[in-house]
Amino acid sequence: MILDIFENAGHYLGLHHGFRKAFEFLKRPDLASLEPGRHEIDGERVIARVAKGPGRKKQEGKLERHEKFIDIQYVLSGTDEMGWKPGSACKSPAGPYDPKEDIQFFTDEPDAWVQVHAGAFIVFFPDDA
Questions:
Q1: CA torsion, points 44, 8, 62, 47, in degrees to nearest 10?
Q2: pLDDT tens profile 92-108
Q3: Which of 41, 51, 114, 123 has the most CB atoms around its CB within 10 Å?
Q4: The pLDDT of residue 49
């Protein structure tokens, strides 16, 4: 997991070939006005899911894990509190793995809670939940 401010995104470009396109997308001047939903950036290799509104409350949230994709979450306004736990430590699935969406949810308690403020991003790798 990585937590940093967007101004430092360039430090991470070498970690994955898709990071450059993902971070370029997040620089769009019209980012706040994009419609919620799925947006292809580089075909199926790099996609964005735009969500608006307040994040889930701690008691409503579930850990999520991806097997293939790296999840970069960027907060445009406000503060979002996100839970983290090593994926290998998740023992309570909330349902089966969905290979089409590359996602599985867990009801385990996070090992840590992280506040992600406006202008910051967090990266969850496949080993993270």
A1: -10
A2: 999 999 999 999 999 99
A3: 123
A4: 87
